[in-house]
Structures are given as C-alpha cells and as structure tokens.
Fold:
Amino acid sequence: MRVLAVETSCDETAAAVVDDGRRVASSVVSSQVDLHARFGGVVPELASRAHVELIVPIVTEALELAGLDQRGRPVLPAADGPGAPIDAVAATVGPGLVGSLLVGVSLSKALAMAWDVPFVGVNHLEGHLYASFLEEPALELPVVVLLVSGGHTLLVEVTAPGAYQVLGGTKDDAAGEAFDKVARYLGLGYPGGPAIDRVAGDGDPELVRFPRAPMEGTYDFSFSGLKTAVVNYVDRNPEIRTEDVAASFQEAVVDVLVEKTFKAAVSLGVRGVCLAGGVAANSRLRERACAAGAGLGLPVHLPSRAMCTDNAAMIGAAGYFALARDGASGWGAGAEPGLGFGA
Ligand code: KG4
Ligand code: ZN
Structure:
C-alpha cells in the first residue's frame, strides 16, 4: 500500500511517499529555520503562511520523486514504471501549532477526497517512534524508544507497530526546550540544540556538575531546574567559557536520558533501544547511548539525523499502521494542537 504523507505540525513543511509502512519512495523536507531564526524561535503566524506557500510544491516534488503525477498516479505505464498509485493520504493532526496543522490536514483531506482514497490522521509523536523502523525494517521488537524533541520527552515501550506503553515523560520542560532555552541564554541563537552540540565539542563536560533531577522510582524527567542552575551559575561566574557551560549542561541532560532509558530497557528485558526526535541528533547522546548499549550487549538503533528531526516519512509509516489498525479517519477529522500520547 502506497501512502502519501504530509507533515506541517511546526516549522518544517514535509511530504513523503511510503510503501507498506516500511519503504520510503520519496521524502522531501523544507525547513523554515532561516525564516524564524531572527526572532529566536518559531513565529506561529509566519509558520502557517509559509506552509500555505510551500505545501503544494513540496507535495508535488514528493510525488514526482516517487514516479507519480499530481493526481497520485504513476507517470510511466505500470509495466515500465516503478510504482503503483497512491492508496491513502496521511497527515499529522497534532500535537503542534494549530495554524500549521490546519494547512497539512486540509490539503491532505482534499487530496484524499479528490483521489477517492482514505484519509488518516496521525499523531506526530507516534510518527517519531517509526524513525528506526523505516531505516532498519528488520529491527526486533520489543524496544524501548527514547523520544526527545522540542516539545516532548517520552520513554515508550513498543511491543508491536501500534502497540505502545508510555513508561514516563517530562514533568516540565522537554529536553529540546531545555537545549533551546539554555542556548538562547548563552547567546548561541536558534535552533539551540545543534548550536550547543557544536560548541560543546570544544568544552569540558566535567567542569561544572549541574544538578541531575533523579525523579526517584519513576521513568519521568525534569529539566527546568537544570536550566535555572545554568543561568544562576553563569550569572555568578561570568568568566566561564561558553563551551564549558554548554558541554557541562549537555552532559547533565544526556546523563539522565541515558540512565533512565537503559534502566527501563534492562528491567523490561527488551531487545533493543531506539532514539527518536530532534534531540536524538545530538552527538553526545548518540555516543553515550551506543556505549551504554555496548556495555549491556543491547542493540541501539540510531536513526539518521534527517530521520530524527521532523519529516513526513515517519508520518507515512505511522499512517499505514494506523489505517490497518483503526481504519480511515472520518472526514470531520480536524487539527488537534494539544493531542496527547498514550493516554
Ligand atoms: O523533533 P523535532 O525536529 O521537532 C519537534 O517535534 O519538536 O525537534 C526539534 C528539537 C529542537 O529543540 C532542537 O533544538 C533539538 O530538537 N535538536 C537538538 C539537536 N538537533 C536538534 N538538540 C540537541 N542536539 C542536537 N544536535
Ligand atoms: Zn517532532
């Protein structure tokens, strides 16, 4: 089954064609980072306006790269061409910015209606869980997935496609939010995660021991105290090098993420650990997760950086399994900016 997927939950306009929930025929992502950088964060109204302008060209490009025309049909006769027509259209319905979500949901429903195929609404967070499966279709389940993005920090056990158990999550700031806020405070610009990752490479991760919130007896996380500790420390020690603050802060975040993830993996006896979400692109987190997995003899699945950050291929995979599990979404499906996960 061929799914056209659309992702417009935040500031990436993305479209992809995914076959059987596992093979990516095409994936196109247009980032609006440059548009928002001078404001130090995503400006919702600008994001929605940019999605409206970009969505048709991006969807057209994804279709073309998969050998399809603007009606979702193969350009070449089936005997010569690579592909089949589009069987379903999936779009992120939430969580995210309402104005951004509406653009992707409206276009996707219109295409599904015009092409007479089902529409399926996808939870953006569920999409992130599929990143590793797309790149390693033979990956063995169950796994524990650490999903760390700009808006969410979740630890999830995946026993089968579509079967999840949320083990814990952040009680305040998401991991990516902490990176972005600390980067802004340090004057490193937006987006903050990649900037901290970059400068931390030249810093000493052990120079300052910032607090690690233990959240004893749970798989929950808390990062707002750490952010405050960084601000207080720098205010009292203005001579400290930014590289050292960035490296020490990053180490504190990575310490708790890695410790809880592998504790959960061991106690549940799963077959591996996957990282997902934008923060999973972090070099130190990837390095430490690999080392922890090697120490325990547990496979660690690290999606490519492009698959960690927002993209539509992951929405196509989640959409395929959601359609198989629950059937099509109703035509009344709308944007759900506050959509939760695993409740
Ligand atoms: O998954 P994502 O692209 O969008 C959301 O759904 O939120 O994640 C974006 C987040 C941002 O907070 C960004 O700063 C962070 O991922 N991020 C990183 C890195 N690359 C992106 N954080 C730490 N290190 C990175 N290399
Ligand atoms: Zn995301």
Q: What stands out?
A: The two ends are 29 Å apart (CA to CA). The chain has a mean pLDDT of 94.
